[in-house]
From TrEMBL:
Keywords: Membrane, Transmembrane, Transmembrane helix. InterPro entries: MFS_trans_sf. One of its GO terms (cellular component) is plasma membrane. The chain crosses the membrane at residues 9-34, 46-62, 69-89. This is Major facilitator family transporter. SUPFAM superfamilies: MFS general substrate transporter (SSF103473). The keyword Iron does not apply.
């Protein structure tokens, strides 16, 4: 394996680690916020289950866009989307609590 392939491998490993860390840290925070807002525990559980069901459903559908556009644009668009949504997470929690 040459140096370029090793670098790509570790970049992908880092991206997966950061994504897992953000999910692992965000789910307990959302659960605490929902509990403080009076959301039932079953609705809180549906929320946590929905995240992973969405990942499970979206994973097989990602192959075609990855082959068409490549890893780099998809990773950049996904990272930008996550960062922009996390920036407004606090403000959105005020609007979303009325739906539960």
């Amino acid at each position: 394996m040459n140096i370029n392939m090793k670098l790509r491998f570790w970049i992908l490993v880092s991206i997966v680690a950061i994504s897992g860390f953000s999910q692992g840290m965000l789910l307990p925070l959302i659960a605490i916020i929902f509990e403080q807002d009076g959301v039932s525990s079953s609705m809180n559980g549906f929320h946590a289950t929905g995240l992973y069901l969405g990942i499970l459903i979206a994973s097989p559908l990602m192959e075609a866009p990855l082959r068409r556009f490549g890893y780099k644009p998809i990773i950049l668009i996904g990272g930008f989307t996550v960062a922009s949504h996390l920036r407004y997470f606090h403000y959105g929690s005020r609007f979303g609590s009325g739906f539960c």
